[in-house]
Amino acid sequence: MRLxxxxxxxxxxxxxxxxxxxxxxxxxxxxxxxxDLRAWTHDKHHTVDDTPYGGGPGMVMKPExxxxxxxxxxxxGGPEAQPxxxxxxxxxxxxxxxxxxxxxxxxxxxxxxxxxxEGIDRRVIEDYGDRFDVREVSIGDYVLAGGEAPVLVMVExxxxxxxxxxxxxxxxxxxxxxxxxxxxxxxxxxxxxxPEWRGHEIPEVLVSGHHGRIARWRRDQxxxxxxxxxxxxxxxxxxxxxxxxxxxxLEALGWERxxxxxxxxxxxxxxx
Length: 272
Ligand SMILES: C[S@@+](CC[C@H](N)C(=O)[O-])C[C@H]1O[C@@H](n2cnc3c(N)ncnc32)[C@H](O)[C@@H]1O
Known about the structure:
There is one protein chain. It contains eight helices and eleven strands. With 272 residues, it is of the alpha/beta class. It has two domains: 2-159, 3-Layer(aba) Sandwich (Alpha/beta knot); 173-272, Orthogonal Bundle (Trp Operon Repressor, Chain A). The strands form four sheets. It has a five-stranded parallel beta sheet with strand order 2-1-6-5-7. The protein has a two-stranded antiparallel sheet with strand order 3-4. The model has no long low-confidence stretch (mean pLDDT 95).
């Protein structure tokens, strides 16, 4: 997979040389290219921002450097290359989820445009949106000073899904939000040796050697953790996601099954 990042702070992307992503780069599984947006400015001060039309506080990133940068990067793929997906970090974008990470991990080429100030002149997104697959993506309901940290977040989530990047290909199968069995659940607690630490023992079932019981215990823990930390996930889950043990576990946790099969907390209406 090829990843291009255009930024005014290339050094902010240094962590892409470390750990899992760094190793994937070294092995040639990821071709990461970080570009300094100021290389596409033509004035003495390498200006990338200007005052907003309509007034108001803050500055807006000028369209010209972004346009020139993106045109050159896209052209560098050659006429045969499948066009990249343009990923635009913005708090006003669609939420970045595991589902979106999986979808983006299937693209051969992603170009990220982390902004600063009040963001990028809208016409850049419109111009590329006419010709490319452009995704405006938010990593959460808060506002950061720039899009570089969101790019690090997204690249790590995407890279660990690429074939051969994780040592054990099964590792992300049971992750929280993993498509399939964990789609609506958070992962439960995990333990390693020693079996007793500061008086705390590991749950006995985990050394029973009984795979069915272990799987069920893990599922019950995932249900309990999700119910406690992310009740919204339980409420909106497809009723088909629950087997009869899940339903019993949720009822034991005080959840009520509605007529449409979905679960809600006692006394609360389920959002239709
Ligand atoms: C100060 S923010 C601009 C916020 C913008 N005025 C708004 O309220 O939507 C500057 C840049 O940081 C990045 N950014 C900040 N918060 C983000 C978030 N939650 N998700 C993704 N990108 C974010 C985006 O690249 C954004 O253009």
